[in-house]
Amino acid sequence: VKALIQEAGSPNVAGVGIGCPGLIDPWKGTVRTSPNLLSLPGFRLRDQLSENMGLPAEIQNDANAAVLGEWLFSPASKGVKNMCLLTLGTGVGGGVVCDGHLLVGSDNAAAELGHLKAEYSHGALCGCGRRGCVEAYVGSAGILRTAREMIAANPKTSLKDEKDLTTKDISQAAAGGDQVARDILRKTGEYLGRGISLLIETFNPEKVVLGGGASAAIDYLRPGIEAAVKEFASFDFTRDRCKIERSAFPDDINVIGAAATYLNAHPELR
Ligand SMILES: [Zn+2]
């Protein structure tokens, strides 16, 4: 960060924002637990960084930071008061802006949208230890599991069930016209749509934004999403007014979210 500030000609920097995976305590500035960063639990990340930088700092969960980034910086979200964001990566993160505020809950652990249940009967195992979560179908391991099942059942595909198969390969094959790849993403979209239906009922959002690597396949996820939302969201009005779109910053949402985290905590700077 210091190097970047120097590179930018040492401008006036108000503070530093941090978007960190895991359960974050933004009030104490600590990392409670972080499944992929085992060395961090309890770490005073905000204050350590602040002391090191000589600048004030603010911390949020990375997906909460991402929805703030989309909300505060995307021209398409200007004036929006209710929106949800799902980050589609290894896991599925979520953030909700509700009535013009970031929804944090009692422990800053609200909006764990990847763990909304999309399947109650014989659901796939999720990284959280429960079954049937959206993440178990829409996280990268879930997409690959669906892919392997479908490739085995439909050998007429350009996709190969190889160790290094990625969601990007599937998305590229879909764009190239591969029907099995399109079916994999449609199925993935259906599970995502089940989760989105719950968001529509709960938050009445103006939009649901998709970020993360797999959001590049939004055109092929969309038929499944729309079918599921049509099937499961109960009210036409709240369903039809909810736009589903890709993040305005598909590659940079994490850094933009970090900046937005600082600005959200200091509204006088916005
Ligand atoms: Zn889960």
User: How much of the sequence is in beta strands?
Assistant: 15-25%
**Which structural class best describes the helix and strand composition?**
alpha/beta
What gross morphology would you assign?
Answer: globular
Biggest pleated sheet: 5 strands, mixed
β-strand number: 9
Q: Topology as H/E string?
A: HEEEHEHEEEHHHHEHHEH
**C-alpha Rg, in Å?**
19 Å
Summarize this, please?
This protein is α/β, with parallel strands linked by helices and 270 residues long. 41% of the residues lie in helices and 15% in strands. A hairpin with a 2-residue loop joins strand 6 and strand 7 (101-102).
Task: List the defining traits of the structure above.
single chain, about 270 residues, alpha/beta, 5-stranded mixed β-sheet, 10 helices, globular, binds zinc ion
